Amino acid sequence: MRMLEKDEEEGDIQVSWQDQQNINTFSKHNARFQDLEETYEAKKTEKEYLDDLAMELELADEDEPVRYRIGEAFVSLSLEAAQERIAKTQGELDKEIEALKGQMDEAVEKMDELKKVLYARFGNAINLEKD
Amino acid sequence: METNPRGIPKAPFIENVEDHVTEQEPVEIVLRKFQEAVAKYKFMEVNMLQRKRNLDTKVPEIRKTLEMVQFLQSQAEEDESKEIETLYELNDTLFATAKVKPTGKVNLWLGANVMLEYPVEEAAELLSTKLEAALKTLKNTEEDLEYLRDQITTMEVNTARVYNWDVKQRRLARAKEEATGEE
């Protein structure tokens, strides 16, 4: 998304330092939002896999050790220990996902505010929408 | 000149185009200067993106290693003589079983073909410090990237405004010429 395709006919509106800062902040939040969205999606998929895994393990044989990946190697863990580790990771992921969601909402909110200000000032001379 | 904490100069904002374009510095030169500044910022951006990519792979690596060291730590706390049964990667996609007796020591790959033996506790500490440092650098790099984007946007707006101003000046001059020609 390009932030500033200024219309050629629009030469009369003076851009003030305040406007410039608003434009920059908008651009920044927009970029930030895209990065966050990417991480958010990745984390969500990870969480889904973990949820599936937890379900799957419910049905596993209690006496069979689970080969659990830590770092580059697999370690034999008791079913219980493996489930504990999964639950811990799930909890951590949940927190991360929540934090990301919060940051995304904040970015959207700021962008909406700035959109109002900037459209009021520049009208059609500025384009702040995603293509 | 104003800079950010890492010494990246701030892009000047043009308040009034008329004040900026002078006899000595006509529009062409001003625009060229702006373009040069944008090119410099873009160059820095590419470098920063590269650095961010490196960190993005480095951080999970440190995390993984730390996770294993912490696992060893927790095993030792539970039972000091407990063997760990593990499948380790002997070669690409080829795993072998190993039984590991706790030794209280690990070898960390420090890079440049150097490996060093650490007590598990120290290894965990070292890795945590490294992780923290890497995360801090990552945060700074992300900040720098946002800052650079700001500066690039400012310069692009500057360019658009000077260009539009020039177009308008030319149009006015032409209109004036035509008006005098008709008389």
Quick overview of this protein structure:
The complex is a heterodimer of chains A (131) and B (183). Chain A has 131 residues and is mostly helical.
Explain this structure to me?
The complex is a heterodimer of chains A (131) and B (183). Chain A has 131 residues and is mostly helical. Helix content of chain A is 66%, strand content 8%. Chain A has a two-stranded antiparallel ribbon with strand order 1-2. In chain A, strand 1 (66-70) and strand 2 form a beta hairpin. In chain A, helix 1 packs antiparallel against helix 2 (79-122). The N and C termini of chain A lie close together (6 Å). In chain A, 14% of the residues are buried. Chain B has 183 residues and is α+β, with helices and mostly antiparallel strands. Chain B has a domain at 29-74 and 109-168: Orthogonal Bundle (Helix Hairpins). Chain B contains three helices and four strands, in the order H-H-E-E-E-E-H. In chain B, helix 2 packs antiparallel against helix 3. Chain B is rod-shaped. Chain A binds chain B through residues 3-4, 6, 8, 10-11, 14-17, 20, 23-24, 27-28, 31-32, 65, 67, 70-76, and chain B through 13, 15-16, 64-65, 67-68, 71, 84-89, 95, 146, 149-150, 153-154, 156-157, 160-161, 164-165, 167-168. Chain A: Keywords: Chaperone, Coiled coil. Chain A: GO terms for molecular function: unfolded protein binding. Chain A: Heterohexamer of two PFD-alpha type and four PFD-beta type subunits. Chain A: Pfam families: Prefoldin_2. Chain A: One of its GO terms (biological process) is protein folding.
Shape type of chain B: rod-shaped
Radius of gyration of chain A equals: 24 Å
Number of helices of chain A: 2
Instruction: Count every helix of chain B, treating DSSP H or I runs of 4 or more residues as helices.
Output: 3
The CATH architecture of chain A comes to: Orthogonal Bundle
Largest interface here, residues on each chain? A-B, 26 and 28 residues
| Percent range of helical residues of chain B | 55-70%
SSE string of chain A = HEEH
CATH T-level topology of the domain at 29-74 and 109-168 in chain B = Helix Hairpins
Major sheet attributes of chain B? 2 strands, antiparallel
Strand order of the largest sheet of chain A: 1-2
Derived from helix and strand composition plus strand pairing, the structural class of chain B reads alpha+beta
CATH class bucket of chain A: Mainly Alpha
Shape of chain A: rod-shaped
How large a portion of the residues of chain A is in β-strands, by DSSP E? 5-15%
**Helix fraction of chain A?**
55-70%
Order of helices and strands of chain B: HHEEEEH
Number of strands of chain A: 2
